[in-house]
């Protein structure tokens, strides 16, 4: 089959890095990965992933949303419990809380990291609080130490959502290794992809065993062939073909991460000196995997998210909005009082960052950002 060309006129918002290795493994899974071989790539993918993170247990799932859902259930989160998370978030982080009948409690974000503001968590803790879900937004690091000490003080679970931060690290320890359990996404826009997919990672054997059973319709491994379910679970398994893609992507993880950094650094070199414009931070002792470069315009620059979004669209760039505050969604009936979450989402935008972006395309994006500032000042 001929390789389909993507027009260089159109700059996509995101695109995976797929080499011959991914095609070979997925083809092998499609040809041979059936019958007794139907778990081969799933095991390989789980093993390489847990080794990379130096963790004991990994379960590949159909999505990150699924991994969070099962993990929260395994922790015992149930109706009327409260779970704390940042207001600025993708809907997939909050949805599993509601699947279990628990109540999400939204905390404002830190204006520099765009992640949950650890200093604002304690005022939201009540007797019903059971867990904090911390998300490393756009690859940026959570204030892990502060959040973990709050969890210890109030006896709360720490769920680490590293869906956007595969390859980030804190004091040389990878993100996704700090939670009671952690979750990752392999959606097509993520650092590595399986098309759709996720991972549940933990050192806690009890949680692992529970999620293993939920993941396959409540059947223990001994009971699979006997078609016997001990409880109601879910059909959240990943497929062998998807796992073959994931295994190849993990073998190439260092190449993929290196290119992400190069792209971020090119934007940073050309944009960071503009007074009033900020980008993803990288603090001492942290490494940001820069899943998605973002720019935030200071209020004084007068550039709204809408303005830059439309300017990108007019110039054939697939723009994507910064996450909205979840407290603005009508299903949550929440107070809209998290200032940073509301303010930043009105003056920020995601920048394209896929591996085969060309220099002239990056220059085009950079020039449009500068143009947006000129046109509004
Ligand atoms: C922070 C975060 N958590 C969870 C998810 C959910 O991932 P999935 O689409 O694999 O369910 C995403 C995906 O976009 C995400 O960005």
What is the number of beta strands? 14
The tally of helices reads 11
CATH class of the largest domain: Alpha Beta
Beta-strand residue percentage: 5-15%
Q: What's the overall average pLDDT, rounded?
A: 96
CATH architecture of the largest domain: 3-Layer(aba) Sandwich
Determine the oligomeric state from the structure. Answer: single chain
CATH topology of the largest domain: Aspartate Aminotransferase, domain 2
CA-atom Rg in angstroms: 21 Å
Please bin the fraction of helical residues: 25-40%
Major sheet, described briefly? Answer: 7 strands, mixed
Number of domains: 2
Fourth CATH level, the homologous superfamily of the largest domain? Type I PLP-dependent aspartate aminotransferase-like (Major domain)
Bound ions, cofactors and other small molecules, one mention each: pyridoxal-5'-phosphate
Structure in words:
With 377 residues, this protein is α/β, with parallel strands linked by helices. The protein has two domains: 20-251, Type I PLP-dependent aspartate aminotransferase-like (Major domain) (Aspartate Aminotransferase, domain 2); 254-375, Aspartate Aminotransferase, domain 1. The protein is 36% helix and 15% strand. The strands form three sheets. It has a seven-stranded mixed sheet with strand order 1-9-8-5-4-2-3, with helices on both faces. Strand 2, helix 4 and strand 3 form a beta-alpha-beta unit. Helix 1 (20-32) packs antiparallel against helix 7, helix 2 (40-53) runs parallel beside helix 7 (240-251) and helix 3 (64-75) packs across helix 6. The protein is globular and about 70 Å long. Pyridoxal-5'-phosphate binds at residues 63-65, 90, 92-93, 135, 161, 163-164, 185, 187, 198.
